[in-house]
Design brief:
Number of helices: 11
Largest sheet: 8 strands, mixed
CATH superfamily: FAD/NAD(P)-binding domain
Oligomer: single chain
Radius of gyration: 21 Å
Number of strands: 18
Order of helices and strands: HEHEEHEEEEHEEEEHEEEEHEEEHHHHH
Helix content: 25-40%
CATH topology: FAD/NAD(P)-binding domain
Strand content: 15-25%
Shape: globular
Structural class: alpha/beta
Length: 385
């Protein structure tokens, strides 16, 4: 893991000088990564740690601004990636799930030893930016990817220079995918989330999840305590022909009290955006261009969780590029395609849930052993200690 290896920290000035120098073939960079979220950061850090010249483009001037992620980190990511070094003040440990049927009947779920981390997500994204610079990547905030042209052995990125590899970690509507002729995500959920700073749930040690065909067809609603307050969200299947905005206010009026959210709260920040739900795109890498994270569709079709899978895939891509350029390893495009999780079972469950979601089975069977087993498989993967 990149987080456990010793590394040399470069100053911003020395980093800039190193990255602006062209090599003998006229390339300023070995890798240009578009997007500084989890997948992009993992890829860039893995490549930079191995000595590559890495540039990261992030369109936002503040990495913690206008987020589209819940920031909930599963145990595997919290223990097996660089995220294990997150400052304790940025996370809150959650060890159980309360699952609510449409009638608001509930069941408590847990797996011994398993947990989630809710986060101060803006602070986490700023921390990641610091990690990128600390590992020697040239992070350019406020610098959007606009265009790139194919050249012999790589890409010419407008406003940046020549790079041997271009990595798109720029979200569900990836510009890199469109420009490079790679596969694009076609199926989405649409989610919206409120932050209630300073609020506290009655049961702050559980992740509260609500099933409701009325408010969340194709997905769920949720409440969670994070380090700074409460996050409350709702997501549903996105149909471009009949676009529908989630009725989060109506959802909170019905479910908020059941979940222990105090009434008459005013939200602070609001997050919203598309969430891939169809598994990895078919044409994920080709001709020195590679997609990862949401841009590649590497998000669980069932839970919409993507941080752990995105980190693992991004890190694999960064390491594969380094192994290829430095040691003559296999083509990183091939490695990237092979490393993408297929989610075959979860894609089948997504298909069934989209077509056969009814409220009455959840109301009737909430406390039954089969439903409890299925829910524990989804939330915990039976990965307790």
């Amino acid at each position: 893991m990149a987080c456990s290896r010793p590394r040399t920290t470069l100053s911003p000035s020395s980093t800039g000088e190193m990255h602006m120098a062209r090599d003998a073939d006229g390339f300023e960079f070995d890798v240009v990564v578009v997007g500084a979220s989890f997948a992009g950061a993992a890829c860039a850090i893995a490549a930079a740690w191995r000595g590559l010249r890495v540039c990261v483009l992030e369109r936002k001037r503040d990495p913690g601004d206008k987020l589209r992620t819940t920031g909930i980190i599963v145990k595997e990511a919290a223990e097996q990636t660089l995220l294990q070094h997150l400052p304790a003040a940025m996370t809150r440990r959650i060890e159980s799930v309360r699952l609510y049927a449409p009638s608001l009947k509930q069941v408590a779920l847990a797996a011994p030893g398993y947990y989630f981390l809710t986060t101060d997500t803006p602070a986490v994204m700023r921390w990641l930016a610091g990690q990128l610079r600390g590992h020697g990547a040239d992070l350019r905030l406020g610098c959007a990817f606009t265009d790139a042209g194919r050249i012999d052995g790589g890409w010419e990125v407008t406003g940046v220079g020549r790079t041997r590899y271009l990595v798109g970690a720029d979200g569900a509507r990836s510009r890199v995918a469109r420009r490079c002729g790679l596969g694009e995500v076609r199926q989405f959920l649409y989610g919206i989330e409120y932050e209630f700073p300073g609020a506290r749930l009655a049961d702050a040690d559980a992740l509260h999840c609500f099933i409701s065909r009325r408010y969340a067809p194709g997905y769920i609603g949720w409440l969670a305590q994070n380090p700074g307050g409460v996050q409350a969200g709702l997501a549903l299947r996105h149909d471009p022909a009949q676009a529908r905005v989630p009725d989060i206010d109506g959802f909170l009026l019905r479910a908020g009290i059941a979940g222990g959210l105090p009434r008459h709260l005013r939200p602070g920040h609001t997050r919203a955006g598309l969430i891939p739900c169809s598994g990895p795109v078919l044409d994920l890498a080709r001709d020195h261009a590679i997609l990862t994270g949401d841009a590649a569709g590497i998000v669980s079709p069932v839970t919409a969780g993507g941080i752990h899978a995105a980190w693992e895939h991004g890190e694999t891509v960064g390491a594969a590029i380094a192994a290829h350029l430095r040691d003559g390893g296999p083509a990183p495009e091939t490695v990237a395609i092979a490393a993408a999780p297929r989610f075959r079972t979860k894609r089948a469950l997504r298909w069934l849930y989209d077509r056969l979601q009814f409220d009455w089975p959840f109301d009737l069977l909430l406390h039954s052993p089969p439903l409890r087993w299925a829910a524990e498989q989804v939330y915990f993967h039976k990965r307790g200690s």
